[in-house]
Fold this protein.
Amino acid sequence: MTIMQLLMLGASAFFAYKIYEHIQTLEEPVDAAKPPRTAESFSTFDADALIEKADEQREKGDLQKALAIYSEANLKEANNAEVLFKMGYTLSLQRRDEEALEYLLDSVEIDNQNPFAYLEMEKIYKRMGEEEKAKNMRNLAVALDESLKEA
């Protein structure tokens, strides 16, 4: 390479670096009409609509899809006892008992007036061979709804 070519290469590299530096300092323009991306912006559906969609999938037998939609609903509305219960119930249907128990326990921590959460935990504890815990869950469910005594 000649000296002139080396000087041109050096100048090009210098200007390319300066352009790169400038681009790195630029920020995205803030569009007031466009809200920032949050968990709510992933889907146009609200949590209730997502729960309905997930319920439909669960009833069709597509438990994995139902769980994915329940998870999205949980992102949209964290600590929703209904979503947590339904996630636990769906996991229980798949015999993923440890995970199901976690969601069910979280559900009753938020809303301890759902007898069906206790009934589902009773089933899981029975499958796990923990009869005493199962009996306790049954008693909690019956305390909330006397009609479950015969069930």
Remarks:
- Helices lie at 3-25, 47-60, 63-76, 81-93, 97-110, 115-127, 131-144.
- Residues 47-149 form a domain with the Serine Threonine Protein Phosphatase 5, Tetratricopeptide repeat fold (CATH 1.25.40.10).
- The CA atoms of residues 115 and 141 lie 4 Å apart.
